[in-house]
Amino acid sequence: MLLELKDVHVHYGKIEALKGVSLQVGEGEIVSLIGGNGAGKTTTLKTISGLRSCSAGSVFFEGADIGSMPGHKRVLAGIGQAPEGRGIFPGMTVHENLLMGAYARKDDHSKELAEAYELFPRLAERRSQAAGTMSGGEQQMLAIGRALLSKPKVLLLDEPSMGLAPMLVQQIFSIIEEINRRGTTILLVEQNAQQALRLAHRAYVLETGRIVRSAPASELLDDPQVRAAYLGGDVGGDPGAVAAPGPETVALSKPAKAESVKDESVKGESAKGEPAKDDAEPDGADAPDGE
Ligand SMILES: Nc1ncnc2c1ncn2[C@@H]1O[C@H](COP(=O)(O)OP(=O)(O)O)[C@@H](O)[C@H]1O
Ligand SMILES: [Mg+2]
């Protein structure tokens, strides 16, 4: 198992945000963690990346207990994160932001840099632009691209679709699938359960600090309880794929190839140099962060 949480408890003062979370992420998988606001999704990712410590329980990476390993060492070990609310450096250029992703590495990062620009041609176009003047969708691409510069074995993504227009949501999810196809394991946290379940191999449902369901993603997509709680009014543009019963549901919803994604990324956005208005991002608005 690449990554494993065993009975993890995390507190913020007296508040117990995680009440015994256990989950596993195997090499090559896309695993989704879905759940409502305040369920503990961000806390789970922060516990994996080392920004919060467990009050009880353990985190294992490649079989080793990493509970006492500092965050920067976890990045070097292969745990990459694109944080909630982007976390980019607004005054630095796109290029400088990408390079920050490789800050802990001593080896050559030119391959990963080229790959980030290839996956996100928009970032290549905006290489010298101040990151803070990019649109919400572009900043999300930058956050993911930067995480790739650390050459992660597992990429932790915290609500990459948050605040984005539907077309951009499709693009981001297609690129996530492409990153996985190229060999990176993904742990995807989402409130957008519909999309996350269509992309993932397996999924966990988190409710107020506890895992309440764990199953192949296709099973959860068809589960009446999960649908009532997380998929109501979130059917998106492809109701056929959702309505179809049975295990073939996920096969119906294979995302577009990365090539078509790149083409779409040029359409429907504002003129060069101006942040797009269509995907305004409530940046960090609901990210309580007392560190
Ligand atoms: N820095 C913090 N200080 C105190 N409580 C926090 C902090 N961060 C998160 N919490 C609480 O922990 C719980 C889980 O939060 P979080 O992991 O951000 O949930 P999610 O990402 O699923 O919305 C919530 O009740 C939240 O209010
Ligand atoms: Mg969160």
Automatic annotation (TrEMBL):
<dbReference type="GO" id="GO:0015807">
    <property type="term" value="P:L-amino acid transport"/>
</dbReference>
<feature type="compositionally biased region" description="Basic and acidic residues">
    <location>
        <begin position="256"/>
        <end position="279"/>
    </location>
</feature>
<feature type="domain" description="ABC transporter">
    <location>
        <begin position="3"/>
        <end position="233"/>
    </location>
</feature>
<dbReference type="GO" id="GO:0015658">
    <property type="term" value="F:branched-chain amino acid transmembrane transporter activity"/>
</dbReference>
<keyword id="KW-0067">ATP-binding</keyword>
<dbReference type="GO" id="GO:0005524">
    <property type="term" value="F:ATP binding"/>
</dbReference>
<keyword id="KW-0813">Transport</keyword>
<dbReference type="GO" id="GO:0016887">
    <property type="term" value="F:ATP hydrolysis activity"/>
</dbReference>
<keyword id="KW-0547">Nucleotide-binding</keyword>
<dbReference type="InterPro" id="IPR027417">
    <property type="entry name" value="P-loop_NTPase"/>
</dbReference>
<dbReference type="InterPro" id="IPR003439">
    <property type="entry name" value="ABC_transporter-like_ATP-bd"/>
</dbReference>
<dbReference type="InterPro" id="IPR052156">
    <property type="entry name" value="BCAA_Transport_ATP-bd_LivF"/>
</dbReference>
<dbReference type="InterPro" id="IPR003593">
    <property type="entry name" value="AAA+_ATPase"/>
</dbReference>
<feature type="region of interest" description="Disordered">
    <location>
        <begin position="238"/>
        <end position="291"/>
    </location>
</feature>
<dbReference type="Pfam" id="PF00005">
    <property type="entry name" value="ABC_tran"/>
</dbReference>
<feature type="compositionally biased region" description="Acidic residues">
    <location>
        <begin position="280"/>
        <end position="291"/>
    </location>
</feature>
<comment type="similarity">
    <text>Belongs to the ABC transporter superfamily.</text>
</comment>
<protein>
    <submittedName>
        <fullName>Amino acid ABC transporter ATPase</fullName>
    </submittedName>
</protein>
<keyword id="KW-0029">Amino-acid transport</keyword>
<dbReference type="InterPro" id="IPR017871">
    <property type="entry name" value="ABC_transporter-like_CS"/>
</dbReference>
